[in-house]
Amino acid sequence: METTKNFVQLRGTAAGEPVPSHENHGQHFLRFPLAVRRLSGQTDTLWTIATAEQLRRLTAGRPLTGQRLDVDGQLRSFNNKSGCGSRLVISVFAQLLTPTSEEDDQNRIALRGVICKPPVLRRTPLGRCISDMMLAVNRRYGRADYLPCIAWGQVAMITGNMSVGEALSLEGRVQSRTYTKVVEGCAQERVAFEVSIMHLVEDECF
After folding, report:
1. Of 27, 72, 86, 127, which is least surrounded by CB within 10 A?
2. Residue 80 pLDDT
3. 168 and 160 in contact (C-beta within 8 Å)?
C-alpha cells in the first residue's frame, strides 16, 4: 500500500473571479472560490488554486463566475505568517480543471498520512462522539501538508484513540465551517476548512 495519498475530486460552481495567489518557479497561480453543494442543501465554498495558464484556457476571456467546473487535485496547506486571518491556510490545488455540464455536485477526498498531533475526543451535548485530529500527508521533495480532520460516531471512537505517528487512510469530503473569533475585544467571523471523514479504508481508493 502507498505510504501517502492525497487526491481530491470536486464538482461545483465558480463563486467568484480569480485573484493572485503566489508565484513559484516563474509560474503564476491564482485562486478562486468554488461552491459545492452537499446533499443536505448546505454549500461548502472552497478556495481553489490553479495556474494562470489553466484559467486562461478555461475562460478564453469570459468571466469565471457561474461556470460549472470539475476539479481533480490535492488538498494543500500553507502556514500564513502574515498575522492576518487563520494561521493554517487550506486550499485545493487543481491539477486538472475542466468545464462540465453535469448538474450534480461532487466532493470526494482520499488521504493517507500520519497523525501528527494527539487526537481530541469529545461528546456533543446530546452525547454524540466527535474527534479532531491533524494529519500530515507527505508531498514529493520532502514537504508535507498538515490537514485538519474531523470524525463522528464510531469513526470518531476509533480515530480519537489513535496515537501520534500512526498511519491513517480515509475517504471523506472537504468542508468549510464558519466560526467567530474574538480579537482584541472584537468578534470576527472566520472560515475554517477541514476534512470530514466518512470512512476509514485499508485498500486503494479512487
Report:
1. 127
2. 62
3. no
Q: What length is written for the chain?
A: 206
Q: Are 91 and 32 in contact (CB under 8 A)?
A: no
SS3 (DSSP) at 150: strand
Dihedral sign for Cα atoms in the order 2, 150, 92, 173:
positive
Could you count the other beta carbons within 10 Å of the beta carbon of residue 201?
16
- For 25, the grid coordinates are 518557479
A 10 A CB-CB count for 124 gives: 9
pTM: 0.89
* CA–CA dist 44, 48 (Å, integer): 12
Average pLDDT for 150-167: 96
At 1 the pLDDT is 52
Going 99 to 102 to 104 to 108, the CA torsion angle's sign is negative
Q: Which residues of 59-76 are buried (b: 16+ CB within 10 A; e: fewer)?
A: beeeebeebebbbebbbb
> CA–CA distance from 129 to each of 121, 150, 156, 163, 197 (Å)?
7, 11, 6, 18, 13
**Matching residue, cell 485498500:** 203
Smallest Cα–Cα separation from 153: which of 116, 121, 182?
121
Q: Are 6 and 108 in contact (CB under 8 A)?
A: no
Residues 195, 55: Cα–Cα separation, whole Å:
26
- Residue with cell string 486571518: 85
